[in-house]
Specification:
heterodimer, A: mainly alpha, Non-ribosomal Peptide Synthetase Peptidyl Carrier Protein, Chain A, B: 403 residues, alpha/beta, Peroxisomal Thiolase, Chain A, domain 1, 2 domains, 10-stranded mixed sheet, 15 helices, phosphoprotein (chain A), phosphopantetheine (chain A)
């Protein structure tokens, strides 16, 4: 299950960044990957659709949202938690 | 070049059913934002808005009219009735031949679209009312105004998202200033507080779930409103000759495009529109006493707008007042500039500056006098009204106290 969440999130981020999955560094920030504010909102939408979850996120202050977007790894962890909470 | 004055104003919005009620709310710092009362609200994440409440269309319009008037058209007609009555103008002969109506709206008949898409997609109906198209079209409100008041000159609708009504009023100003007409009816209207309208905005993740707090450090997004404001713009000598009450003078207008990003605002684009309006009006920066801000309550707009004002006004930025009345009536999208012009006219006529309510914490990136929480008595001779839209389209009007 955890592996699958990771793979799907990385695939979503790779698509937004127009990169190969293999080129996504787990410690990278979205900014490092060239994903801007619109790309971020689209990524979150894609995650919500893929996992059928609701992600708490307000673009006015991304850092204050409960959803940690500071790196690819943190996003995967946050999605795993949300899946466990909302689908568990 | 002819002087252009405002001889009529009318409105309906979350703060009131007319200008008097709206100005009372501005003076009291009253908030018109509350829980949305719309179908399927339980399926929305955003459940607040500046909704026009206690409004019964059947009390204002007959059944045939309602079959043709979307809510945004109804609001336009009600606001126009007040404005044109106040102006005392009757449009006939040469005046009617030249005068037109230019309105701003972003969504047009959004409620009509929402209801009829629901009918065919969700309810599975295969038939819709015959007037869906003339009811939802963006120019419907302008068209009905032209018909009702015999306005036979140039009439159309401007759609530049959140700057629509400032663009509309700016064009009406230019028409009268150029001498092509003695009067224009202008303003804007919006009504997208329906399930689809709010759901679409929700998707962008820029909406606040609890309040609109422009310039406050704890702001967390915009809140949508609805309503209309309509004005009569008239050539000064024409107004003077008939003894009309002059509410304010429109003295300048400028537009600019960021040519940069579809949603992120640009300081340079905003600054060019503000300084352009000063140049068009022949003003020095130090002449300006009040700015009605675009002030959406989003992180991006408010800091960018403050930076643009600081750039244009220099040291004078710390002496002028700038408030966002969106904190009270919500962001009325294509109609917002028109409703906000009421606050500019109030400042010029009555020397009362509408506040930015819900202001809790100073933000160093918005370090201007935002007239926090309480209206202020202060003489104002010149006011600006800012509008900076998605798409990077900016429009700023300059007004002077009637003399």
């Amino acid at each position: 299950m955890a592996e699958s969440v990771k793979d799907q999130v990385v695939a979503i981020i790779a698509e937004q960044a127009i990169l190969e999955v293999a080129d996504i560094n787990m410690d990278a920030t979205l900014e490092d990957l060239g994903i801007d504010s619109l790309g971020l909102v689209e990524s979150i939408f894609a995650i919500e659709e893929a996992f059928d979850i609701s992600v708490p996120f307000n673009a006015n202050d991304p850092s204050a949202s409960e959803f940690d977007i500071s790196s690819v790894t943190s996003i995967i962890g946050a999605v795993e938690n949300l899946v466990a909470e909302q689908k568990g | 070049m002819h002087r252009v004055v405002i001889t009529g104003q009318g409105t309906i919005n979350a703060l009131g059913a007319d200008v008097a009620q709206t100005l009372d709310a501005f003076k009291a710092g009253r908030c018109g934002i509350g829980e949305l009362d719309i179908r399927d609200v339980d399926r929305l994440a955003i459940r607040i808005g500046g909704q026009v409440k206690n409004y019964d269309p059947n009390a204002e319009f007959n059944r045939q009219q309602i079959s043709l008037y979307d809510r945004f058209t109804q609001f336009s007609l009600l606001a126009a009735r007040e404005a044109i009555a106040q102006s005392g103008l009757t449009f006939s002969d040469q005046l009617a031949a030249q005068a037109g109506v230019v309105l701003g709206t972003a969504g047009g008949g959004m409620n009509t679209q929402d209801e009829n898409y629901r009918a065919v997609y969700e309810d599975g109906k295969n038939r819709v009312h015959p007037f869906v198209v003339p009811k939802l079209m963006n120019n419907a409100a302008a068209a009905h105004l032209s018909m009702q008041y015999n306005l036979k000159g140039p009439s159309f609708t401007v759609a530049t998202a959140c700057a629509s009504s400032n663009h509309a009023m700016g064009l009406a100003f230019q028409f009268v200033r150029s001498g092509m007409t003695k009067a224009m009816v202008t303003g804007g209207s919006e009504s997208m507080l329906c399930f689809g309208g709010v759901k679409a905005w929700e998707g962008l993740r820029v909406m606040s779930k609890d309040a609109c707090r422009p310039f406050s450090a704890n702001r967390n997004g915009m809140v949508q409103g609805e309503g209309a404001a309509i004005f009569v713009f008239e050539e000064y000598e024409h107004a003077k000759a008939r003894g009309a009450v002059i509410l304010a003078e429109v003295i300048g207008f400028a537009m600019s495009s960021d040519a940069a990003d579809i949603v992120m605002p640009s300081k340079q684009g905003a600054a060019r529109a503000i300084s352009g309006a000063l140049i068009d009006a022949g003003l020095n920066a130090s002449d300006v006493g009040y700015i009605n801000a675009h002030g959406t309550g989003t992180a991006a707009n408010d800091k960018t707008e403050c930076a643009a004002v600081a750039d244009v006004f220099g040291a004078h930025a710390d002496r002028l007042m700038m408030s966002s009345t969106k904190s009270m009536h919500g962001h009325v999208i294509g109609g917002t500039g028109a409703i906000e012009l009421l606050a500019c006219i109030m400042a010029l006529r009555e020397g009362v500056v509408a506040p930015t309510i819900n202001y809790d914490e100073p933000d160093p990136e918005c370090a201007l006098d935002v007239v926090p929480n309480e209206a202020r008595d202060a003489p104002v001779n010149v006011a600006l009204s800012n509008a900076f839209a998605f798409g990077g389209m900016n429009a700023v009007l300059a007004l002077r106290k009637a003399s």
